[in-house]
Amino acid sequence: MFRKSTVVGAAAAFLTASLLFPAQTFGQDYRIKTIALTGELAPGTAGRTFAFLRIPTLNALGEAVFTAALDSSDFTNRQGIWVGNADSLSLVARQGDKAPGTIARTFERFGLVNSSASGEVAFVGVLDPSDRTNDSGIWVGAAGSLSLLAREGEVAPGTGGEIFASLKTPVMDPSGEVAFDATLPTALSGDRGFWVTNAGSLSLLAREGDLAPGTIARTFRELKFLFRQQPVLNPSGELAFVAQLDHSDFTNDRGIWAGSLGSLEIIGREGDVAPGTWGTRTFFLFDPPAINAAGDVAFEAVLDLSDSSNHLGIWVGNAGGLALVARRGFEAPGTGGRTFDLFFKGPVLSASGEVAFAATLDPSDSSNNSGIWMGGVGALTMIARKGDVAPGTPGLTYNALGVPALNASGELAFEAILGSTFGPRGIFAGRPSDLALIVVTGDQLEVAPGDFRTVTYLGTVANSGNEDGRLSSFNDAAQVAFRAIFSDGSEGIFIASPPGPVDLFTDLIDAVIAQDFNPGVENPLLDKLNTALNVLDKNPDNVNPVINILGDFIDIIEAKRGKMISDAQADELIALAEEIILLLEAA
Question: Which residue has the higher pLDDT, 587 or 483?
Fold first, then answer.
């Protein structure tokens, strides 16, 4: 009668409107592990405890990356950055510690932290106030091996001796390369640029005042969107960004560029005919793009204002060509003829070139006028929609849907508010056809054996396809990192993981034992499962023998069906075994 939301499969309950969540479908029950809790010892701090935890990101190794504040016993060294999982959590940097690459300067505070597939981090740090002319920098590396990449007041590569004035949050690709935007002291040639590393060496990629590739003698005037933008960086070292050109011609002075050092190309430009508009409409404004390892970009754009009923859209492609994915006023797949209205925060882009985005529909029915879509050109699928019943709930419907995150396997994660405007907030993840509810406010989460706490707040970082260098709480293993606040005021950092084969075998063994069969039935079944586990343990990559043993397990059940095993028992155990087989075949 309880919904599982624990580390080891113990039960937890969620109660809202006097309804209990039933057990989730087998195979969709994410395993949640505690990474950090307020009030508990913070590694690397000689006995200090966590007092405040920020929303974590998640790297490819399944490690949470987060900043936190310690108890108030000493305010001079209270903040820090931690990286790790449930088995090992390490302090990377701490307020009051000597900042690598400086002479006797110490860290005072930290900005947002990005990470690579190998566990390295990149962040802006602010130094002690002894000299405000050079008190910020960007550091990269791992625990015990941080190095200074760039610093306020130091020479900015590629500028002829000018110095960095301010440094913005870096992006980091899976290989550990870094890109960031920074400003320079006011100069005739411009005061903002994008820098990127190549094998750890920092170079200037684009700067205000530089000639803009793909134009005739036009220069970059502003490398920003509205107030500023964070560029995106793919694993091939290619950057993508929005820029505005000099004002010599206002009819075509905005665009999107992408590329690596020395090979920037223009992707789309104001005044160009927008693909998918039958040659009748032109681009006007661009939102910051997403990018993947193949060099494809995806972005939202505003068309010329000749018709505001269909002047917004999402495009995907590269310098060789763009294609329209979705457009305001055009039919939204899966809605029975409803049309797109507005798009939220632009699309995210996966390794395979699929896009995902949140959007609203025309206002003809406000009860179901928003959703999340995913897919390619001409092949969009509606993933979730306001008014639809949310999986893992007792009939609660989606009310508000957050922007999604994507991974390389085509899985996605997103937050949603359920029921009413002020209803519970849940985190969902999985394949588009098999979404699972991971956790929801109101859940009682088992943060340690026997220690259940009621969730009142949840937070993740989305809006990334995991190949653009942006922050993300979702990785390619379909794990989700999240922050939770509980009704007693405590906080925690957690990682939710889809069950692996060993998890499912454990559940199946428990299910066999729970049937209370006589030994003549139970023992042969358990022997098959234990044999399969031993084979899997010796060679995890050779799954065919394990699948064959599970087939034998199913044959035993079928032979005893209606005799010593009831139909209900047989159906339950076979369904669990087939779930393992499907997982092994997918692997």
Answer: 483
pLDDT at 5: 43
Which residue is it, tokens 């997403």?
290
Distance CA 214, CA 258 (A): 11
Cα 49 from chain centroid? 28
Six-digit token string for 452: 């259940």
Residues spanned by the domain of 546: 502-586
pLDDT of residue 10: 27
> What value does the mean pLDDT of the chain take?
91
List, as one string, the DSSP characters of 393-453: SSS-BEEEEPPPEE-TTS-EEEEEEESSTTS-EEEEEEETTEEEEEEETTBEEEEETTEEE
Distances (CA, A) of 86 to 7, 69, 218, 493, 495: 10, 19, 53, 10, 8
Burial class (CB in 10 A: 0-12, 13-18, 19+), 475: buried
Q: How many domains does the chain have?
A: 1
Helix (H) or strand (E) holding 432: none
Q: Which two tokens stand for residue 319?
A: 């310098």
Q: State the Cα–Cα distance between residues 252 and 272, nearest whole angstrom.
A: 8
CA distance 25 to 20: 15
- pLDDT per residue as tens digits for the range 246-298: 989 999 999 999 999 999 999 999 999 999 999 999 999 999 999 999 999 99
CB 403 within 8 A of CB 348: yes
Is residue 21 assigned to a domain?
no
Q: Which residue has the tokens 């293993």?
A: 477
Q: Which residues contact 510 (CB under 8 A, 6 or more apart)?
A: none
Residues 6+ apart with CB under 8 A from 88: none
* C-beta of residue 94 within 8 angstroms of C-beta of residue 106: no
**Three-state secondary-structure class, residue 95:** coil
Indicate the SS3 state at residue 546.
helix
pLDDT for residue 271: 96
Please report whether residue 166 resides in a domain: no
Q: Cβ(292)–Cβ(240) under 8 Å?
A: no
Question: What's the length of the chain?
Answer: 587
* Structure tokens, 313: 């859209």
Write out the H or E segment, with its range, that includes residue 152: none
pLDDT beyond 80 at 320 = yes
Whether the Cβ atoms of residue 196 and residue 212 lie closer than 8 Å to each other: no
pLDDT confidence of 189, banded at 50, 70, 90?
low
Looking at residue 583, what is its pLDDT?
86
pLDDT in tens, 402-443: 999 999 989 999 999 999 889 999 999 999 988 999 999 999
Helix axes 519-538, 501-514, angle to 10 degrees: 170
Phi, psi of 578 (to 5 degrees): -65, -30
Confirm whether 552 is domain-assigned. Answer: yes
DSSP-based three-state secondary structure for 157? coil
357, part of any domain? no
Strand partners for 380: 375
* pTM across the whole model: 0.88
Q: How far is CA 114 from the centre of its chain?
A: 12
First to last CA, the chain: 32
